[in-house]
């Protein structure tokens, strides 16, 4: 998998993980992911919003427009029960993959 493919495969579980901690808006999600990854994941708004829209259509998250004190509107996203179930399933998939990769790397290192 290339870095682009790996990022694509991890985007939904990452977003669901972030939103499992509470609702948030797009830019804040981007900032939180950058902070958690130590800057290794540098997402952009044009990359994020189509994914959020697709996840909303799939029922994994829900979106709600809110008017801020300054009169501007901001869309907030929150995880749904279906999203929480999907997050648990994705977590298990990633844990299984990490176990396999760790075993392969350990075996390779032991055989070197």
Summarize the structure.
66% of the residues lie in helices and 14% in strands.
Protein described:
The chain contains four helices and three strands. With 112 residues, the protein is α+β, with helices and mostly antiparallel strands. It has a single domain (3-111), classed as Winged helix-like DNA-binding domain superfamily/Winged helix DNA-binding domain (Arc Repressor Mutant, subunit A). A three-stranded antiparallel β-sheet has the order 1-3-2. A hairpin with a 5-residue loop joins strand 2 and strand 3 (73-79). Helix 1 packs across helix 4 (81-111). The longest helix is centred in the C-terminal third of the chain and has 31 residues, at 81-111. The mean pLDDT is 92.
Calculate the mean pLDDT score and round it. 92
Unreliable residue stretches: none
**Which structural class best describes the helix and strand composition?**
alpha+beta
- The CATH class is Mainly Alpha
Task: Using brief descriptors, characterize the structure shown.
alpha+beta, Arc Repressor Mutant, subunit A, three-stranded antiparallel beta sheet, 66% helix
Topology:
Blueprint: H1 3-20, E1 24-25, H2 26-36, H3 45-58, E2 61-67, E3 73-79, H4 81-111
Antiparallel strand pairs: 1-3, 2-3
């Amino acid at each position: 998998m290339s870095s682009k493919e790996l990022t694509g495969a991890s985007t939904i579980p990452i977003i669901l993980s972030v939103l499992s901690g509470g609702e948030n808006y797009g830019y804040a999600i981007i900032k939180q992911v950058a902070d958690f990854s130590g800057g290794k994941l540098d997402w952009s708004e044009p990359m994020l919003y189509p994914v959020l829209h697709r996840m909303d259509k799939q029922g994994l998250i829900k979106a709600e427009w809110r008017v801020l004190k300054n009169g501007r509107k901001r869309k907030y996203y929150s995880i749904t029960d279906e999203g929480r179930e999907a997050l648990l399933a994705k977590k298990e998939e990633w844990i299984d993959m990490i176990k396999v990769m760790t075993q392969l790397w350990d075996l390779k290192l032991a055989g070197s």
